[in-house]
Design goal:
158 residues; mainly beta; 3 helices; 11% helix; 49% strand; globular
């Protein structure tokens, strides 16, 4: 969970438009090849989202060492119809949310498109009822050891 908020921010910040296929392709689904993850439409995610749960585990050199399944701080993600977003970090010091990051993303055929998932760590974005699920894999090498975090974040629209 140590990187859960940052990965989502990096993912949304790096969302870019991918033009693949012909202009005549009107299938209504994203076209992008192996490095494009798309699971939700812009109309599904416009609004204010609150992070409420993270579940995952960490491996060190391929061996599972740490698991978590816990509530999280109530950070907000505000997604606007114009393709911009703001990440509001909850502060336990003053019990307010403060703008931490903001950015924009692109939409293809109505879907949010994520490119270069190997670098971003985003593996899947999906909706389950009114919950936005974002799955990540992040890798870090420290002192010759490989740390891999696998996490699913749950966001609810408020």
């Amino acid at each position: 969970m140590k990187k859960n908020f940052m990965w989502l921010l990096m993912g949304l910040c790096a969302l870019t438009f991918t033009a693949c296929g012909s202009d005549d392709d009107n299938s209504g689904t994203p076209q992008g090849g192996d490095t494009t993850i798309s699971g939700v439409t812009l109309s599904q995610v416009v609004g204010t989202w609150e992070l409420f749960h993270a579940k995952g585990y960490q491996t060190i050199d391929g061996v599972k060492h740490h698991e978590w399944d816990e509530p999280t701080s109530p950070d907000w993600l505000i997604i606007k119809p114009d393709g911009t977003w703001q990440y509001m970090k909850y502060s336990t010091v003053d019990s307010n949310r403060h703008l931490l990051y903001g950015g924009s993303f692109a939409v293809e055929n109505g879907y949010i498109v994520v490119n270069d998932v190997s670098e971003l760590g985003i593996q899947k974005m999906s909706m389950s009822g009114d919950v936005l699920m974002v799955e990540f894999i992040s890798t870090e090498i420290k002192s010759g050891k490989t740390y891999v975090d696998y996490e699913t974040q749950s966001w609810r629209k408020i």
